[in-house]
């Protein structure tokens, strides 16, 4: 039906973040804490990553002239 967003762990402003595309889902002090949270709540983060809001935020803006 649609492609699932891949959730990655990236360093951003001295915090380890769970990201789906360009959207930050959560922030942690250590990479280990981020990995633990992702393992523990993977279905929640995957649901969130596939939500309409995240999809809209990751899409390219479309400008229409009226």
Strand segment tally? 3
Shape: elongated
Query: Which structural class should the secondary elements be placed in?
Result: alpha+beta
In DSSP terms (H or I, runs of 4 or more residues), the helix count works out at 3
| pLDDT averaged over residues | 86
Structural overview:
With 66 residues, the protein is α+β, with helices and mostly antiparallel strands. Helices cover 38% and strands 27% of the residues. It has three helices and three strands. The chain has helices at 31-40, 42-49, 52-58; strands at residues 7-12, 15-20, 23-28. A three-stranded antiparallel beta sheet has the order 1-2-3. The radius of gyration is 14 Å and the shape is elongated. The model has no long low-confidence stretch (mean pLDDT 86).
State the main characteristics:
single chain, 66 residues, alpha+beta, 27% strand
Summarize the structure.
The chain is α+β, with helices and mostly antiparallel strands. It has helices at residues 31-40, 42-49, 52-58; strands at 7-12, 15-20, 23-28. Helix content is 38%, strand content 27%.
Question: Could you give the topology of this structure?
Answer:
Blueprint (H helix, E strand, L loop, with lengths): L6 E6 L2 E6 L2 E6 L2 H10 L1 H8 L2 H7 L8
Antiparallel strand pairs: 1-2, 2-3
């Amino acid at each position: 039906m649609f492609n699932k967003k891949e959730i990655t762990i990236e360093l951003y402003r001295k915090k380890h973040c769970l990201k789906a595309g360009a959207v930050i889902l959560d922030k942690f002090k250590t990479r280990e804490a981020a990995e633990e949270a992702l393992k523990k709540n993977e279905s929640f983060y995957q649901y969130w990553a596939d939500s309409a809001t995240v999809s809209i935020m990751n899409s390219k803006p479309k400008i229409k002239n009226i």
